Amino acid sequence: MSEDPCNHFDSNVRASALREEAESTDFPSPSTLVNAHAHTFYSFNYKGYSPSRFALEAKKQGLEMGGIVDFDVLDGLEEFWAASRLLDLKACVGIESRVFVPEFADRVINSPGEPGISYHMGTGFTTTEIPPEAQAFLDGMRRTSEERNRAMVERVNAFLSHLTLDYEADVMPLTPKGNATERHLCLAYARKAAGDFTDESSLRAFWSEKLGVAPEELKDLPEGRGMTDLIRAKTMKQGGAGYVQPDSGSFPNMTEMNEFVLKCGGLPTFTWLDGTSEGEQSIEELIEVGRSTGVAVFNIIPDRNYTPGVSDQKLANLQKVIGLTEELGLPLLGGTEMNSPGQKMVDDFESAELAPHHSLFLRGSRILHAHSTLQRFSGMGYLSEWANEQFSDIGAKNSFYGEFGGLFSPRADGPLCDELDSEMGAIEVLALARESMAKV
Question: Do the domain assignments include residue 391?
């Protein structure tokens, strides 16, 4: 458990620490930087960031907007919403999981080596008070994830014998609400080995034998990125002792995930790896499959899609897919996940590779901030009945939500809520947003 009180597993400690730090910090004026895809300690953040700590760091670094995304849970939603309001930080909340896409059953998409399996998201969640059938789906995701992890630990334990993890004692304490991921498992194995083999030579000898890597080639002992990534690659990914090839029954269908997101008032969201797989080379087809059941947003992790100063196929793929999202009117979200050591807090949007696309990532973040604000306060989100009545085309809708998200900040929530009414037209809502900002 971190010594940082803002990362404490006790939510009351975090809330108190957040208030104290917010009151004592002189924050910079917001820039146009955004990170709409950061994982928190509810599904592994390599710095141990809670939703509160991520919000604080985003504000300290002058981000205009911050968004959190956790695997299989919405546990950080209310905390992040409260933190964003306290700090006057534009925000959105999402969830990520893996799904099966029947139409791509024989093609790898963005989960390497796993045909038909895709990482998939929902964004723009605004409450944990969701319909019972949606809650059952969410509970099922959490339960399935834990069952999968426990089974994996059994297999990896057998492979690493006599190094054995106790799931309750070694894994669960690493998470605030029991939602462990593969990265938690890797960290737990690394720490267990370091405890069992207290001198470096014996530790290197153990991992060398078990993972098939020369002792001198082992990097970042005992628990740095090189070591935990190696444990993951050798034991939990394809070809590893703990790996089981998923099939059509291992995860929900993308359609089912989209239905869940829509029932919660969120926005079904594509994710993108780098365009090199067979499935992502057919991205137009994949997008149409998703849009047929509700996908409305596109998420990219920019930092892994280019090498600074290098014009290669990955960069060409990135430029192509960004152009496609613009052509289709799909709001574009992006950020650095922070779920692997060394990842940045925010992308380098001034780089030659990303600068041409900065405005699109910024607009997408503003659209999601606007959706989240209007959906939470009055059910007037991006896919609401109100939006369908107001806008005849996607361009007009994006223009409205982008404008609202650009001019409105959370500090004006009070004045906005006092007057906001779903009987208002889009022009009236924008006028109200301006009036609300003028009052604070």
Answer: no
Residues with Cβ within 8 Å of 312's Cβ and at least 6 positions away in sequence, in order, are: 306
Quick one: pLDDT at residue 247?
Answer: 86
- pLDDT tens sequence across 392-426: 999 999 999 999 999 999 999 999 999 999 999 99
Find residue 310's DSSP bridge partners: 307
Strand, coil or helix: 345: coil
Is-contact 320 355, C-beta < 8 A?
A: no
- Per-residue burial over 374-384, b if 16 or more Cβ lie within 10 Å, else e, is bbbebebbbbb
Q: How far is CA 41 from CA 3, 58, 70, 168, 295, in A?
A: 14, 16, 8, 17, 27
Count of CB atoms situated within 10 Å of the CB of 91: 25
Residues 218 and 114 placed together within one structural domain of the fold: no
Q: What is the pLDDT of residue 249?
A: 87
Containing structural domain, residue 110: 5-130+264-360
Sequence-separated (6 or more) residues with CB below 8 Å from residue 418: none
pTM of the model: 0.96
Looking at 339, 360, 381, which one is the last position of a domain?
A: 360
Angle at 319 between CA 316 and CA 325, to 5 degrees: 140
Which ranges of 46-199 does DSSP label H, i.e. alpha helix? 51-60, 77-87, 132-160, 182-196
Residue-wise pLDDT tens digits, 207-233 = 999 999 999 999 999 999 999 999 999
Do residues 315 and 343 share a domain? yes
- 123 forms bridges with which residues in the sheet? 267
Counts for the chain of helices (H) and strands (E), in that order = 15, 7
Examine the pLDDT at 50 and tell me if it is beyond 70: yes
For residue 280, the domain's CATH number is 3.20.20.140
Do residues 33 and 81 share a domain?
A: yes
The residues, any chain, with a CB within 8 Å of residue 372's CB and separated by 6 or more, are 91, 92, 93, 124, 126, 381
3-class SS of residue 271 = strand
Are the C-beta atoms of residues 62 and 29 closer than 8 Å to each other?
A: yes
Q: Are both 9 and 108 inside the same structural domain? A: yes
Q: Which of 3, 90, 42, 48 is nearest to 372 (CA)?
A: 90
> Are 65 and 125 within one domain?
yes
Asked if residues 314 and 276 have their Cβ atoms less than 8 Å apart, the reply is yes
Residues constituting the chain: 440
